[in-house]
């Protein structure tokens, strides 16, 4: 059944080269934990991506119930967590995944750093990786406000005060992020929501694509 | 034991597909169940809602009865006001009709079309119903108006669930 469908599509579109190009390539021996157990350090980049996929999926499902509005945000989060089946699991995946993705990304960065894998010709990929790091931190920051509880609001006030302390342009940055010069409220919440679910993920996907294309082009760095 | 040989490649394919499928299912199952929850949730509706309409004041002429109740919509609780068209039928029974047109869901009203008096009229597509709620043939609606279950307590009209019209 599956083979027949595959053959039907392949006959018309010749898809074998496409998936082969993505999936069919050898893992070098020094990267394969089956050969050297210490090669597990090469897994952290893939784990970061794996958790990112879970974050995107669980986030998509959470927006089925979540409302970015100061009156309803907290109530909708309470409802989806306590009244909807598996709400605690789905929100838990997003909550814990947010921390775990930072951990995995940090371990991945440490591996690349201490192996010197960022050196020529891979400098550009390091730069893109650092940009991904910043995007991830921004995702964590914007997502933190969305439940609209006391912790979220005061954490965001702290963030805005930090932004405010930038010389000269600080107040402008603060207003740009919060949507209002003094209030942390309705406009802040919708802004953070839009940034969290549209702008940052779009930037993230673009950067991840660049990250992966570069690693395929250059190959993984050689053994130590 | 069968003598069929499973090659190393096949064995790895099976185990990796199995483990991968198990992980994917573990991730997706809670999310899908989470998403389809509204379909599987038992609806807690039912029970009669009191109106402010005294039954003794009802006549053969349909009147508009608004009634208000508490509605729980997920995390949002509010008071919702719905309408029924109520009159006393010739046999003395109280008839309470839904104002929702069976064509495309607009709101019908009694006696608002000058060319066709003594009928329920929907302004969206000129749908019409007899006083009994039965749709007038040749107008857009294909079914009669839904009917409320009614109850009388202490001379006050109570409205229950909407049921399909029994006539026609």
TrEMBL record, chain A:
The main subunits of the menaquinol:cytochrome c complex are a Rieske-type iron-sulfur protein (QcrA), a cytochrome b (QcrB) and a cytochrome c (QcrC). It is found in: Cell membrane. GO terms for biological process: respiratory electron transport chain. Component of the menaquinol:cytochrome c reductase complex. It is a multi-pass membrane protein. Pfam families: Cytochrome_B. The lineage of its organism: Bacteria, Bacillati, Bacillota, Bacilli, Bacillales. The chain crosses the membrane at residues 39-67, 96-114, 126-146, 193-215. GO terms for molecular function: electron transfer activity; metal ion binding; oxidoreductase activity. Its cofactor is heme c; heme b. InterPro entries: Cyt_b/b6_N, Cytb/b6-like_sf, Cytochrome_b_N_euk/bac, Di-haem_cyt_TM. One of its GO terms (cellular component) is plasma membrane. Keywords: Cell membrane, Electron transport, Heme, Iron, Membrane, Metal-binding, Transmembrane, Transmembrane helix, Transport. This is Menaquinol:cytochrome c reductase cytochrome b subunit. Residues 5-224 form the Cytochrome b/b6 N-terminal region profile domain. PANTHER family: CYTOCHROME B. It comes from the Bacteria.
Automatic annotation (TrEMBL), chain B:
Residues 86-159 form the Rieske domain. Component of the menaquinol:cytochrome c reductase complex. The Rieske protein is a high potential 2Fe-2S protein. It comes from the Bacteria. The lineage of its organism: Bacteria, Bacillati, Bacillota, Bacilli, Bacillales. This is Menaquinol:cytochrome c reductase iron-sulfur subunit. PANTHER family: CYTOCHROME B-C1 COMPLEX SUBUNIT RIESKE, MITOCHONDRIAL. Keywords: 2Fe-2S, Disulfide bond, Electron transport, Iron, Iron-sulfur, Membrane, Metal-binding, Oxidoreductase, Transmembrane, Transmembrane helix, Transport. InterPro entries: Rieske_2Fe-2S, Rieske_2Fe-2S_sf, Rieske_Fe-S_prot, TAT_signal. One of its GO terms (molecular function) is oxidoreductase activity, acting on paired donors, with incorporation or reduction of molecular oxygen. It comes from Peribacillus loiseleuriae. Belongs to the Rieske iron-sulfur protein family. The chain crosses the membrane at residues 12-32. The keyword Ribosomal protein does not apply. The main subunits of the menaquinol:cytochrome c complex are a Rieske-type iron-sulfur protein (QcrA), a cytochrome b (QcrB) and a cytochrome c (QcrC).
